[in-house]
Structures
1.
Amino acid sequence: MNSKQILLALIVPITWGFGYALAKIGMNQFTPLLLMSLRFGIAGLILVWFVKPPWGHMRELFMIAFIGSTIQYGFTYYGLRGIDVSTASILLQLEGPILAFLSTIILKEKLGWPRAFGMGLAFFGVFIIVGEPRLSDSLDSAALVVIGTVVWAIAQIMISRLKTLSGITILSWVAIIATPQMFIISLLVEDGQWESIKSASSLDWLIVFYLSVIMTVVGYSLWYHLIRICDVSKMSPFLMLLPVTSITAGIVLLEEQFTVTMGVGGTLVMIGVASTLIKWNWRKNKTQSSID
């Protein structure tokens, strides 16, 4: 990766990390599903002009949108509303280990003991974090975030089967399809939507702008651009910066406290996640060296 690609890769976790903190602030005005429908509606209307309609894949995209956006963001952001951004950002790192685990079951991919150990370590770190006394009244919110990571992993497996579609095409049309889904469910399970829209301040709409344009359009467009021209193995470590930027945003914007227990648990989670990302081919390299 050259210096320009590294700079662009650093922008991704920064935009996403601050997005979580701003979303939590935004949920003081908008309900979670309404906020997400505004986010993806605006993002979809911007992105859809740059891609062709994937007419032959609309059924699959409808299900991906429903599972990977409507249901997943429902769980994740209702959970985020009840816990601090720092804790939520660490819990969200379970997405990688859970995806690796489900891939071995559904896609029959080989897991290997190093990745299995990493998964166990990550879950142990989460156990330490949720065991904090300050979270004793928020375990349901933490559970919603974890459930959201499971749903996200299921959606990624569904997406992996759409080999002929680009990432931007999937993002654009999932956003377009998910928007009415989220809004309809918001009307069914939430209330006060019109009042919150009418009374929203300029700051509230700036948050919606950030979530839709900066976090989604810019952040995800950069991500899909980079993984198209760079090795995924080189890009994955940049995602490890996401908890750092999220925790920083939580401290700066929300005056959250970062505890020692969170630090210990978060470190174990990050080491575990790193173990699931690393290509453990040392044995192969050792054998090759012996042959040489």
Note: The chain has 14 helices and no strands.
2.
Amino acid sequence: MLNLTLIAFFALHAVAQTDRGTLTSASVTKTKNISFMFHEEAHELSGLFLENKSKELYAVTDTKTEHPSIYKLISSTTGTMMSGQFIDLSTFGGFSEYIEQANALPVATEKKFQVFDFEGITKCGPIIYLANERIRQIVEVNLETKSIRRLPVDFNALPLVAEGGLNAGFEGIAADCESGLLYVAKERAPRQIFVVNLKTNHIQDQFTITSSENYIAEAAGYNASKPKLELNDDFADITFENGFLYVLERNAYEITKVDLKSKTVVGRLSFGSPKVRTLYVTNEPFGLAEGLALSKNKIFIALDNNETEVQPSQMGSANPPKKNSSLLLTLRRPKGF
């Protein structure tokens, strides 16, 4: 069992933005449900999924380990949170075979190669789908047969999938279970969303969306004498709900609502308050948000610390976090978003 601790109470302010970039008023979110979590072995949260029926929040990490796992985040009535190792994939059938086929890939010779680099998670019934970034694959986890395998989708047929290097691969995944569609987000360079038909395992569509105007190369402790960097527009995670895809754009500190029928942006929500931007001092302009999940009234955002130190002074807490802690932010969801 891994420990998580509730900390901190500060206000987050949310604004909605139309596709044209015009800012419009929205309910101001003053959320006190900001949970801080840490765990020693797997501390870099990289993907979230909320199962609406059970209200269970699942998480994956991109920490390199011999026991890649899926975690379940549990909140008590007092607000203290704990994380349990829900599934150790190394105990499932097909695990060794998956490693063998991954190590046979051409990218296995590259310096930063990593067999398991989970950046997204979603679920349909007894099947969990994991986005495995560096080798551009989807891992299918069957809870009934306790087995894993590579979902047989030929992403290599699309040349742009390999573009951008190892660390610009699959960063998010979401499912429309009723329609049998899987949405897979390539992070950047270029960013793209692929639509996979789960009945045929064929890629039936791909698209991108209008970029935010708020990609700002600023960070806590960033050397002001350096020229501002031109950040990549990015996809950090995605989630599906009622015909809409919600996209986490971490470098813009925004969540984008996309109408899947028209593939247009119909709303944006900012979580980039000064407090959030200074939770970690990275000396780099890049955002750290990597996980996104939605409930009826809440938005959950997971921050991957990327081995940087959290700043206790920003928390307003008498119970300071460990230096290498990840964070789970819980925002009140504005009506209509």
Note: The two ends are 35 Å apart (CA to CA).
